[in-house]
Fold this sequence. Notes:
This protein is of the alpha/beta class and 398 residues long. The protein has 2 domains: 90-250, 3-Layer(aba) Sandwich (Rossmann fold), CATH 3.40.50.300; 256-389. Helices cover 42% and strands 11% of the residues. The chain contains 15 helices and 11 strands. The strands form 4 sheets. The protein has a 5-stranded parallel β-sheet. The chain has a two-stranded antiparallel sheet with strand order 1-2. A two-stranded antiparallel sheet has the order 5-6. β8 (205-208) and β9 form a beta hairpin. The longest helix is centred in the middle third of the chain and has 18 residues, at 256-273. The radius of gyration is 24 Å and the shape is globular. It starts with 37 loop residues before the first helix and ends in a 9-residue tail after the last helix. Residues 1-20 and 393-398 have low confidence and may be disordered. Adenosine-5'-triphosphate is lined by residues 87-89, 111, 113-119, 226, 228, 253, 262, 266, 317-318, 321. This is AAA family ATPase. Residues 103-255 form the AAA+ ATPase domain.
Amino acid sequence: MTPPVTAPTQTADAQPAPSRTVDAAADAEAPPLLRPHAEQAYAGELAALAAADTRVRPPSWRLSPWAVVTYLLGGVLEDGTVISAKYIGSRRLVEVAVATLATDRALLLLGSPGTAKTWLSEHLAAAISGDSTLVVQGTAGTSEDAVRYGWNYARLIAEGPSHDALVPSPVMRAMTRGSVARVEELTRMGAEVQDALITVLSEKTLPIPELSSEIQAVAGFTVIATANDRDRGVNEMSSALRRRFNTVILPLPATEDAEVEIVTRRVAEIGRALALPDEPPALDEVRRVVRIFRELRAGVTADGRTTVRTPTATLSTAEAISVITGGMTLATHFGDGQLRAEDIAAGLLGAVIKDPSTDPVAWQEYLEGVVRARPGWRDLYRACQDLADDGAVAAGGA
Ligand SMILES: Nc1ncnc2c1ncn2[C@@H]1O[C@H](COP(=O)(O)OP(=O)(O)OP(=O)(O)O)[C@@H](O)[C@H]1O
Ligand SMILES: [Mg+2]
């Protein structure tokens, strides 16, 4: 018996995939990019904004601050072009972020997990510099080279230190181009690596002692850093560095309606990328997931009547998006395409139960105390209980 996994006539390795450019995305033969950069995905909107934008642009900016804010919050241009909203939230907050970048100060986006810090940073860089790819990913292992520069050791040994042997970091490249450099998870980097940014941000130069030289930043260079407020204490930011940033705190969505809108929009976009049917997810299911997340986060039901135990999980908007996307994938491939309670139950459990010793108790209490009694939620209660009976819930609840 041959398993049905024999290679199709054209194997992937028979012909290596061509390196992709934005234009190559139009090639109908090749599979689409899994996740295009913001400047690729929204190239049309960015071009339309640049064409319509008559306002003053700061040096090296592709768009004026007004057009950047319109790109982020959405709007309709005079020629009728619709600009989709990327960030759903306070206009003032976005204006403050954009205005900061138009000064010589750097921007720190701070907030809970899943509050769109990375998302906003990518779209800001795409709108301002047309390039969101100059990124330093902060981890405990990030070295100073990632912020300053490294060396091509073969050339260094053969030729000695020279500009050609130098490997610029994303920050250095942004300095020479006058672009936005992004630093993700700033507080996860060691203190000495963070401090390498201080000279860059205050002097706008990057010394290269080995060449008795330096790089001077071109106007337009700036840094957008993100940091998670749950990580505070991992590597506290030095006050010297903090003073170089204007901080914008991204809040959790203020209302259930706002969060439902965020989830619905992002699910539709992700669904398109995953080639799921072009049908919006049932709004009722999105609302239920969002309500559950908000109630468990807040420790009280939406009507304020019942207190509930808060699980250890973050239950971010980003996780609500993946519960719905996962549910839609189940419904599409294993159901009739309609998102139902049983499609979201498994995702919900996965999102809520992070600590197997305490979270199952909190979840079971919530199911019995809130979900069971809520009119119209019986199907969800049953779907969750069926999963528990199947042993899908980590032990510890009984
Ligand atoms: N207010 C919002 N407007 C639009 N999208 C949002 C909003 N809040 C969350 N999202 C969506 O949530 C998802 C996750 O956001 P993102 O990864 O940027 O979070 P984060 O704040 O960087 O989280 P982490 O701290 O875990 O890195 C994105 O797909 C984003 O579209
Ligand atoms: Mg992030």
